[in-house]
Amino acid sequence: MRRFLLPGLEVLRGALGRQMRLLPAVVILGLASAALEGAGIGLIIPMLGIIAGDGQANGLSGISAYFQAIGEGLGDGERLLVIAAAVLALIVLKNILAFANTLLTTFIYGKASHAIRSALSDQLLRIGYPFFMQQSPGRLLNIISNESWRASDAIQTVLSSIVHGSAAVILLAFLLLMSWQMTLFVALGLVFVQLAHAALSATLKGPSRHVTSFNSELAARMLHLVHAGRLIRVFGQETREKNAFDSASDAVRRAGFALQSRQGALPPLTEVLHSALFLAVVVSAWSIGVSFPVIVAFVVLLYRLQPHMRALQMSWSQIQGWSGSLEEVRWLLDSSDKPKAPQGNAPVDGLHQGMTFDRVTFRYPGSEVRPLVLHSASFEIRSGRSTAIIGRSGAGKTTIVNLLCRFVEPDEGRILVDGVPLGQINPVQWRRQIAVASQDLELVDGTILENITYGQSATPAEAERAAKLAEAHGFIEQLPQGYETLVGYRGASLSAGQRQRIALARALVRDPAILILDEATNAVDGLSEAAIVETLRSRAGRRTTIVISHHRSTISFCDDVVVLGSGRVKGQAALADVASLSMDQLYEHETGMGGGG
Ligand SMILES: Nc1ncnc2c1ncn2[C@@H]1O[C@H](COP(=O)(O)OP(=O)(O)OP(=O)(O)O)[C@@H](O)[C@H]1O
């Protein structure tokens, strides 16, 4: 029932948070300004009585008689002026309160909208990394860029509903006090209008979900056009991509039209029904002999009530129309079905003995039918040494990096760090011990200096030293803006080899206990690579280095080598013991190597 009444109620309540305590103030201001309006309208009764020459009209009852008695004893002219001044004062006061309420609701809306955006970004940073391996980036982009705004709009609508609802309650109370029979008639009419409205509004949920899902597809297409601009041109796929984009965009248009045309039918329908009710009240009041000033005051009250009722009904249909958006935002904010971030609180400071993979078995999450990527893999990475992890493409090398960084966790077996299970170690502290330079880690859209010092409070001099070690200083110096050069989106204004060297400098500037290079220099020229290898060799004994590469030259400085084949550890040996073997021979020949799993 609650779900039917307000889809995404949890999102709205969560977003309002501490602002919930301001909602009573919104209600009180709404009630007070409506009460002032109602009182002003009530004063029409004595005013009309004076104008109609029947200033002391008798026979009125209830609140009408109370209004009629105001200013009794004064002369007609003086009484008219006093009442007019009172009406004006009430109108001024009512509008001051209404303005105060607008400020208050705008403040709450701003805070709640910010809370939604902040909660979304918090969630994206908090949930476990496997989530990003499974989810469509288009869907996530759509939630952040579109649906979160609709959720904010829903909050504004709820706030304005509170204001309109308060006003409607007070105006209905005035109507009741004037004539309960006519009010009963009005109330029945309003219930009928509301039922008709609710029936139509309920049909908005389906179209709303369509709009949301087509928007996700369109966002995915937009991302594709931005990311794959080069690929599309090289393969001459502009026309095909244009058609695919247009069809996604047209699907959004059609779904939007279906939703908005249904929503658009609601205001005219409501207006017609309200007008019919309005006229029926006048005719029936006249036929049961209600006095002229009371009919006028009643009709004016009814007239003032109508926009509030219409606004309430429109809010209802708008929230139904946004239900797809609210459901998407709620889905992303719901942690219960998302991978958890890695846990653990054992402290860690550097690597002293080494890391051990102890019969680690792993398959990527998503489906049980996915093949095992690591089969009971066992090997060791000793502290202060450089270990090469090699194997044919798809053997599971990067997966080992993902496990070490705790992006994913083993399904079976353990990874031990100085004898402590990695799963028990504080993940934030652990990641501070590691720096990764990989072909997949992109640059951020900023200057070269910002990229090198990303996440690190390094001085420009330290950044320059790291750039020298990574063989990046030479080309950076030749750029017109040097270290202040903007690298563009994902480093688009640099060559692949330049990007890799900046990424390597970024890893080196941290001087990590464990440096992981995953195909980190495969686009770098031979001379630069040789110099980088010398840099890495100089870390030997002091720091631990893990190198993944298909190139013999890149792993030449390593002490140990671990060979992977189809997710199994074929063997582990000192590189010096297998120095005569080529990479292909290393991949294939497991004889003579120790370790394994
Ligand atoms: N995010 C993922 N989801 C599902 N399967 C994945 C994912 N990443 C990798 N795999 C699969 O895991 C296996 C090992 O991949 P991994 O990237 O570890 O190989 P690799 O040895 O690093 O290969 P390469 O030398 O080509 O980089 C592959 O079969 C791959 O298809």
UniProtKB/TrEMBL annotation:
It is found in: Cell membrane. Residues 355-591 form the ABC transporter domain. It holds the Pfam family ABC_membrane. InterPro entries: AAA+_ATPase, ABC1_TM_dom, ABC1_TM_sf, ABC_transporter-like_ATP-bd, ABC_transporter-like_CS, P-loop_NTPase, Type_1_exporter. GO terms for cellular component: plasma membrane. It is a multi-pass membrane protein. This is ABC transporter, ATP-binding and permease components. It comes from Rhizobium meliloti (strain 1021) (Ensifer meliloti). Keywords: ATP-binding, Cell membrane, Membrane, Nucleotide-binding, Plasmid, Transmembrane, Transmembrane helix, Transport. One of its GO terms (molecular function) is ATPase-coupled lipid transmembrane transporter activity. Belongs to the ABC transporter superfamily. Residues 25-321 form the ABC transmembrane type-1 domain. The chain crosses the membrane at residues 27-51, 80-100, 154-177, 184-204, 276-303.
